[in-house]
Every structure is written in structure tokens, then in C-alpha cells.
Amino acid sequence: MFDFARFQATPFFDLLPQDCVARLRTEGHRRTLSDGQYVHSRGDDNPGISVIEDGAAQAGIYSADGSFVLTSYIGPGHTFGDFTVFTNLPRTHDISAVGPTTILDVPASRFKALCDQDPRYMQALLQTTLMRSHLILEMLHAVRSLPLVPRVAKFLLILAPGGPNAPTLRFRQTDLASTLGVSRASMNRALSKLETRSLVDRGYGHVKIRDRQALATWLNAQES
Fold it and tell me: Which of 137, 141, 199, 201 is the most buried (most CB within 10 A)?
């Protein structure tokens, strides 16, 4: 059974006590970005961890034909670039701001030093990173096992930012279609069926989930 409340990774900042958050902010560099502005590009070699303080970001990969494969939608308090701190890999995704966004960048050397001084940083990062890895496995399972409309519903629930409000995901339908490996027409039909059931609202450049619980309940009925 899909319990959307369990399929939300707790933000990194929410897992840290306030003194740790304050210390991290003194070690980082703050950037303010406008909607659509690039945060990092695939292949960049600048190891460090980034935390969204306000706003949101989307991560994915541009294919040779220009299509965008969306892999995650990241909200306030969440991190990205974690793996560059502990591996020799460059940035593997294109990340751009969704709406006005403020990001805190902490270079790898400084973050490693903080982890050495206080294990709470590593504990919090491990918890949120493992949860995100679990969500990726759930997305792969949906791709392999679910019909298109329930598959789209599950992706929306997993990608949607947390919080009490009805979440809005700001991406093009073509991006979600590329992510799921289906045509734009097929994605349009799937979202139309969810909209007919009053589960989502479609708009230009965004999809809004009307009620998380209602969408999760419908998805559970389809999977059972």
C-alpha cells in the first residue's frame, strides 16, 4: 500500500538541531537565483554540498535530442551534490531553480571538517540520502510494473514537495513524459484522466495535486 507520508524524504535541515544549522550557514556561500536559472550543469567539477534555504530546484539530464529527463524535485531544506563530497565524480545532473530560490553552497573540504567535528551532520545526511535512494527504487518499480495512469500518479506523489499545502510541481508535461519514456500525447491522456477524477489540476508549466491523500487512496485501489 502506498503511504505518501512515508514516501517523503525528511529535509536535511529538519534532521539537524538549530546550532548545527547555524554553524553550517556560517561555513557556506549563499546564492540567490531566479526561476529557471542554472545551479549546476552536468559535468561541472566543483565538489560540495548544497542546501535549498528557500524556493525549490529540479534535477535531471538533458538528452542529445534536447528532451529533459526529470529525476527529482527538491524543496526547502533538502540537499544535493552530496556524492561529490565523498567521491571523485563530477556533477551528474543539470539542476535549475524553480521560482525565486536561495541556495547555500558548502565546499567539500569544509563540510568534511564539520562531519569530523560533529557526527550529527553525517547522521542526518545518511538518513535523508538513504530515503531518497529508496524513493528511486520505488520509481523504478513503478516504471516496470504499473500501467501508465497509476505510474504517473505514483511519480507525482514521490516527486511532490512536502508540506501541508496542495503541492504544485512546476515542470512541463513533456519533461515528465521523457522521464517515464512515453510520448507527450500519452502523458497528456494520463494527466487528463487524473484531472477528470479531480485528483490533479493541469496548468501551463505545472501540475498541481489537489489532495495528496485522495491521490494516494486512488493509487492504492489501482495497485490492489
Answer: 199
